[in-house]
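Course assignment 3, question 2. Fill in each field.
Student: A.L.
Task: Predict the tertiary structure for the chain below.
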Amino acid sequence: MDRVYRLETFGRIGFAAHGVVYLLVGWFAMRSALGVGVPTDTKGALHSLVGGPFGWAMLGAMALGLLCYGLFRMVEAVLDLNDIGSDARGLVMRSARIVSAVIHIGLAIYAAALAIGLTMSGGDMKGWTAWLMRQPYGPWMVMAVGAVVFGVALGQAKAAWTANFMDDLAISGESHGTAKTVGRAGYAARAIVLTLVAVFLVSAGWNTDPSQAGGLAEALRELQKQPSGPWLLGVVAVGLLMFGLSSFVEAAHRRITDENVIDRLRAQATGN
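Answer field:
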């Protein structure tokens, strides 16, 4: 069962690195809500480590952790580690995890480049939107991506409402209630910012204007512009901090694989 243990190790390291990124994003959002600095996205969070104490070492560790997360998500989707299935719903969920894998492997490469002193440019939401819009049926494709992002946002909102993420955690006692509360706050915050990202993308496609697209940082800045913006941003910042903490809970307590999958991998390992 070495294969299963390696998968669990990759997954737990990856969830921990994922948690660090969102703690940084939430921290910068909170500072901005208090009138200090501006919100940032995941790349900005990683870039903030440059020049800090042991910055290169921290970035190297983050690169390794995010690579583990990306590879775990890829294997999770391909091998169906959680026994989601291959029906329409299952294929959509597994495809979303492949997209997550690609994004986080890209973040790992970005962190590694920063660790060795390289500067990587491009790859922001507006740049990708402009490239996609130049393709055949580009505006429609951009709006389709926006619709997919909105679907993910709905999934995050459902997780916040039903706390179905607790089904994947091996945790009990008083810690169970705490983990549920923290996770709900985190998923709710993610649902809000992803909904705004979806609106940006649909608007960009509808108006054939890639400058209207935006990612996480733009979503947080848009919240800040609203009436009572600092308070609204502060609430979402707390949620993002909670999302980071919930990733640490997953690193420690998540059931990495379904029992049926473990039996399947065991059979493959033994040749039965």
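Instructor remarks: The chain has ten helices and no strands. The longest helix spans residues 174-206.
Grade: pending
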